Amino acid sequence: MTAADSACSLFAADALLPTGWARNVLVQWDGAGRVTHVVPDTAAPAGVAQAAGPLLPGMPNLHSHAFQRAFAGLTEYRGEAQDSFWSWRNLMYRFAQRITPEALEAIATWLYIEMLEAGYTSVCEFHYVHHDTDGRPYADDATLSLALLRAAHTAGIHITLLPVLYQTSGFGAKPPRADQARFIRSTDNMLSLLERLAPACRAQEAILGMAPHSLRAVPADSLTAAVQGLTALNPHAPIHIHIAEQTQEVDDCIAWSGQRPVQWLLEHAPVDARWCLVHATHMTPTEYAAAAATGAVAGICPTTEANLGDGIFDMPLWLQHGGRWGVGSDSHACVNAAEELLMLEYGQRLVRRQRNVLATPAQPEVATAMALQAVQGGAQASGRLGDGQTAGIAVGQRADWVVLDAQAVALRGLPAPAMLSAHVFASHRTSAIHSVWAGGQCRVAGGRHALHDRAAGAFVAARATTIDAR
Question: What pTM was computed for the model?
Fold first, then answer.
């Protein structure tokens, strides 16, 4: 093995491959950051770095509103007799009014560094603050989108940029509110933005898709035209949409159309494997079966859904129909891939009064089962997975992985599957992550990103310009 080969090689005593746990695994990748060899049951070659613990596939974060990280923790007080998602949204809109391009870039850079340190190696950015504070477009209409691309590049995280189409304040094409002015775009304007962003995304190897915000924010004719226009630009581009997150949304959709949101979407849009149905919390059994059959990914954000009082997705029913899923940190009340899995499993336990609900016959270790499914679904929703491909530590995939610290107290002395279980269920408030690699580059070493301190300081300064919005 040459010195160049050794520089693009890593040996792990234990690795979680798409087929399950394997021993004594050599992984190699090329200069483009793509995996070229995965060889289990082999000896460690001389001169090759050895992982400090089990090697895990990097987790995609399939739903992020980056600017909201600076807002996290600022709404945990009762402002109304019955606080809800809707009262939280009013406060969030006030906060969004104060975001500048410079603040957004600083907030997103720190957030993306936090994500890498927490085990995420890619992010789907659901981006809807488009315009200046008075609602007028910037001289360069892509100003805020480009700030997010720069933040991802600086941090070293792969990004799927999803500019959001937002036009109305409610079902029936209700006019937008004054505090939604920064979000509003016509359909033609959105398609022009995508054309403007395409070269920048290609240069950065970012994926460019689109996100109709929700059925309440995008009228039916606009949804049709936007999906058709995006498909003409790129027939493989991912499409994400908030759907059935709140019971009021369901009730309002029924009042408008006579149908529930997921039911209406499936009958009026070409939903397929390109789509990510974010939240999809309130569905009937018939909707679960029909949505799963499309091949779309359910985007579950357990800590945000808990923080906002949304409800709990019926994951066993979704899996019963072969549904695909992944996790996101959404409003970033929590930025921790393992904790999203923990909250997802614990929500199912509380509803069913059972344990290890999301384990499978093939993977009785619930953390292993969830990690493999979330990586596969997250890669699909990110637009980084072609037909028939397997995500994770596999030939042809990006060299994205997490190395656990086998010497962390919660993990020390355990077999590898139990280390992953301890990482998900027993190591919070102290990280059990040793290093994180994205695209073949070590972005986190010894648990910290190289830009941690500098980015943290810039984030605090940016937040200080916004926090009096409360």
Answer: 0.97
pLDDT in tens, 419-432: 999 999 997 667 89
Residue type, position 74, single letter: L
How far, in Å, CA of 470 to CA of 466, rounded?
A: 9
Contact present, 392 and 17 (Cβ < 8 Å) = yes
- Decide if 63 contacts 299 (C-beta within 8 A): yes
pLDDT for 468 equals 61
CB 29 within 8 A of CB 440: yes
Task: Report whether pLDDT(470) > 50.
Answer: no
Nearest residue to 207 (alpha-carbon basis) of 180, 171, 233: 233
Q: Tokens 């989108």 correspond to what residue?
A: 145
Name the nearest CA neighbour of 246 among 59, 374, 89, 444.
89
10 Å Cβ neighbour count for 23? 12
CA angle 198, 204, 205 (to 5 degrees): 80
Rounded to whole angstroms, how far apart are CA atoms 463 and 18?
A: 40
Q: Which residue has the tokens 């648990």?
A: 447
pLDDT given at position 88: 85
Annotated active-site residue in 310, 314, 330, 405 = 330
User: How high is the pLDDT of residue 1?
Assistant: 64
Q: Domains in the chain, ordered, with CATH? A: 3-57+403-453 (2.30.40.10), 59-381 (3.20.20.140)
How far is residue 220's CA from residue 374's CA, in Å, rounded to a whole number? Answer: 31
pLDDT score at 469: 44
Between CA 265 and CA 247 the distance in angstroms is: 16
β partners of residue 9: 28
Q: Which among 279, 282, 423, 434 is annotated as catalytic?
A: 279
| Helix (H/G/I), strand (E/B), else coil: 212 | strand
Catalytic annotation present for 400: no
Task: Please give the Cα distance from 195 to 201 (Å, whole number).
Answer: 10
Annotated catalytic, 242? no
With CA atoms as reference, report the closest residue to 129 among 184, 90, 89, 176: 184
Contacting residues for 389 by C-beta, under 8 A, at least 6 apart: 396, 397
List Cβ<8 Å contacts ≥24 apart for 257-266: 257/171, 260/284, 260/287, 261/215, 262/287, 262/290, 262/291, 263/287, 263/290, 264/215, 265/215, 265/241, 266/290, 266/291, 266/294
For residue 351, the number of C-alpha atoms closer than 13 Å in the C-beta half-sphere is 15
For 269-290, what is each residue's pLDDT tens digit?
999 999 999 999 999 999 999 9
